[in-house]
């Protein structure tokens, strides 16, 4: 994580256990004495009164709290705008500290506030980045909404391919192609059954289908192939005006609507980020497309706040962890204690880069799996190494403000051939 500034001398510590409707607060002065407890309801009046009470203390204030979904965001923003220093408490660290202090797993709001106060006292905290203050709130909403809509579209697409088409038009599935395209949805919405096609002659069907299919290579041949496929279909003889086909069309319309929403989000994201310097730098990296770049900026914010790439890897959960005790040393693996969306984004970017033309990522993958093309575990580890490399490169290009410079680590052709063994003793470092 990024290095935290030291707690100001004589600062008053404020621990808050966040929830949806009520916040439990525990205030401790540095000189000791009885700690003050109070409850703050999730209302504007209570938030304003609470901020005024803290300001009236007249001393530096350090506020610590645990992230609880989105329930903490409103109060945290109110306190941040009031000028107080905010610290974030890790949920995992909070749970383990509570167990250590109280020798049990039982919890309540008052106990959690005590534990948060203890962690503030010993400095076991993280930097809190307010999305609205950092200017990334809109990017986060674009990124998360795009992910939600993409998942819903995929589910709808899968439902059509596995349920509706096998029943009512199984043969047309071979024309489906890329799920990002809308033309197939438009075609089956207009012609959901073979009978809806064969009810027309070939010329009439071609005239109706021509604008639906859009710009395709060998368009006339494709339309003719679809017509012949419909004539030889084994689909269930369900009338086009039946409730089943009505439901089919309803699901298709839902899929088309999701495609339109996804495309609109991508348009808005590009319009917002087209002149963004960090966005342009990220887009130069192999495998990082518009949505991946959007997600990185939305989840990580300004990558310059990470002084070293290891801090950024830890933030992503791409740092290595090993369990060791005495003579025992366990397996080294990813900690995964970080931002899961960032980790998944870099993994997907690494997958894309490995399939593109020669670049440093593809070259490194070739070195790692050379001679072990059939070893799935080795390839998985190699892709994990590529994911970490992708994160390091993303941090480097933004930290230095320089564009990604493509290169191959070795010109030796043997690294290109996974069937060839690595030279004995050669090191494959990250």
- Helical fraction: 40-55%
Uncertain runs are 408-430
Cα-atom radius of gyration: 28 Å
What string gives the helices and strands in order?
Answer: EEEHEHEHHEHHHHHHHHHHEEEEHHH
Total number of helices? 17
Number of strands: 10
Kindly report the average pLDDT value. 87
Could you give the order of strands across the largest sheet?
3-2-1-4-5-6
Shape, please?
A: elongated
- Class based on secondary structure composition and strand pairing: alpha+beta
Distance between the termini: 20 Å
Characterize the largest beta sheet: strand count, sense, and whether it forms a barrel: 6 strands, mixed
What is the domain total for the residues?
A: 3
Structure write-up:
- Helices cover 53% and strands 9% of the residues.
- The protein has helices spanning 44-56, 73-81, 91-102, 109-122, 131-134, 137-168, 183-190, 194-198, 202-213, 219-231, 243-273, 277-283, 290-300, 309-316, 340-355, 360-369, 376-400, and strands at residues 12-17, 22-28, 36-41, 61-66, 85-89, 126-127, 320-321, 324-325, 328-329, 333-334.
- The strands form three sheets. It has a six-stranded mixed β-sheet. A two-stranded antiparallel ribbon has the order 7-10.
- α3 (91-102) crosses α4 (109-122), α12 crosses α13 (290-300) and α14 (309-316) crosses α17 (376-400).
- It is elongated.
């Amino acid at each position: 994580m990024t290095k935290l500034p030291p707690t100001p001398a004589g600062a008053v510590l404020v621990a808050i256990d966040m929830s949806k409707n009520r916040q439990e607060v525990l205030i401790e002065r540095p000189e000791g004495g009885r700690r003050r407890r109070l409850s703050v309801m999730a209302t504007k009046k209570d938030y304003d009164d609470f901020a005024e009470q803290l300001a009236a203390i007249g001393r530096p204030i350090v506020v610590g709290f645990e992230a609880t979904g989105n329930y903490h965001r409103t109060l945290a923003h109110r306190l941040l705008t009031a000028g107080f220093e905010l610290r974030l408490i890790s949920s995992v660290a909070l749970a383990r500290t509570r167990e250590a202090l109280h020798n049990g797993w039982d919890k309540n709001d008052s106990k959690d506030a005590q534990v948060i106060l203890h962690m503030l006292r010993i400095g076991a905290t993280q930097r809190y980045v307010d999305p609205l203050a950092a200017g990334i709130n809109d990017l986060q909403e674009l990124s998360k909404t795009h992910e939600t809509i993409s998942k819903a579209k995929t589910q709808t697409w899968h439902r059509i391919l596995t349920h509706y088409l096998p029943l009512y038009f199984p043969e047309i599935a071979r024309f489906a192609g890329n799920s990002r395209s809308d033309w197939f949805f438009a075609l089956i919405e207009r012609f959901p059954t073979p009978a809806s096609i064969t009810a027309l002659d070939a010329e009439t069907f071609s005239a109706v289908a021509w604008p639906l299919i859009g710009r395709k290579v060998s368009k006339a041949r494709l339309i003719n192939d679809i017509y012949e496929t419909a004539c030889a279909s084994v689909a269930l003889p369900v009338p086009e005006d039946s409730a089943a086909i009505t439901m089919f069309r309803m699901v298709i319309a839902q899929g088309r609507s999701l495609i339109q929403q996804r495309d609109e989000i991508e348009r808005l994201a590009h319009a917002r980020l087209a002149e963004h310097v960090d966005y342009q730098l990220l887009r130069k990296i192999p495998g990082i497309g518009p949505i991946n770049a959007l997600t990185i900026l939305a989840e990580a914010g300004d990558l310059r706040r990470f002084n070293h790439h290891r801090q950024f890897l830890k933030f992503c959960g791409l740092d290595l962890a090993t369990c060791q005790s005495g003579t025992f040393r366990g397996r080294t693996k990813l900690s995964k204690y970080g931002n899961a969306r960032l980790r998944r984004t870099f993994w997907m970017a690494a997958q894309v880069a490995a399939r593109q033309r020669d670049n440093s990522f593809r070259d490194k993958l070739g070195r790692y799996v050379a001679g072990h093309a059939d070893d799935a575990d080795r390839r998985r580890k190699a892709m994990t190494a590529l994911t970490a490399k992708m994160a390091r490169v993303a941090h480097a290009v933004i930290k230095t403000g320089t564009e990604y410079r493509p290169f191959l680590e070795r010109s030796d052709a043997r690294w290109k051939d996974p069937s060839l063994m690595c030279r004995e003793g050669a090191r494959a470092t990250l």
